[in-house]
Amino acid sequence: MSLGLRRVPAGAHYGVRDWLLQRISALVILVFVLYVVGAALLAAHLDYDSWAGVFAPPPVKLLTLLAFAALCYHAWIGVRDIWMDYVKPVGLRLTLHAATVLWLGYCLAWAAQILWSI
Amino acid sequence: MRGAVARQDAFMTPTKAPRPQIRNIGFGDLPNYRLPVPGVVSILHRISGLLMFLCLPLLLWLFEQSLSSERSFDRYLDFFHHFLGRLLLLGLGWALAHHLCAGVRFLLLDLHLGTAKDAARRSSWIVLALSAVLTALLAWVLFGVGA
Lengths: 118, 147
What we know:
heterodimer; A: mainly alpha; 3 helical TM bundles of succinate and fumarate reductases; 4 helices; B: mainly alpha; 76% helix; elongated
């Protein structure tokens, strides 16, 4: 199963790309969280219309989906690092990696469905 | 000549110090291992991230209920009005607050800001305190007067 010196199929990509993307996605999520918290605080009495109004404009839907995509990618790197640190058998680790990717992809599609049903 | 070599061997052997053993800590060492404050912030960053990942379906479900229709918005409020629901949201609120504060600290460290030992310790305490204050504010909003 070895792909080379000390390389395993369910290992990292041995590069700086994930490290960088983890930080870029973190900034996207930070801006999004501040925006949502701010919008919720500004709507003094939060009812359905004002809350749904926050996400109703098409540009907000697209940017929200972008933020969810950043969140899913961020979660993938973080959870993958946890599996790599604590789960040593390659088969089990590969299964967990695959399950995590599929699950996060499902959640992203779910988020799109929620946003475009408003 | 021969005698000199033998004497030197006898002299050298006892001074050979045992090699220092360097090994990673295991779970058995955890109770006796004094983790420095930056280490506490780091492991809490991981725990809070995992907590939010595990609660992702619940959060998406709440997001869906809050946005689908006025009737589902009421279901969302029901969850919000339940004591256990609020307690769970408070826990996730702490996780988010800590993860964000610690994350900003890591970004600053990446920019080589505050990497000295004292500064790193101070910023760790600030992260712990700030997330505690934000959690207390959220608790006030969730459980305080008028909630």
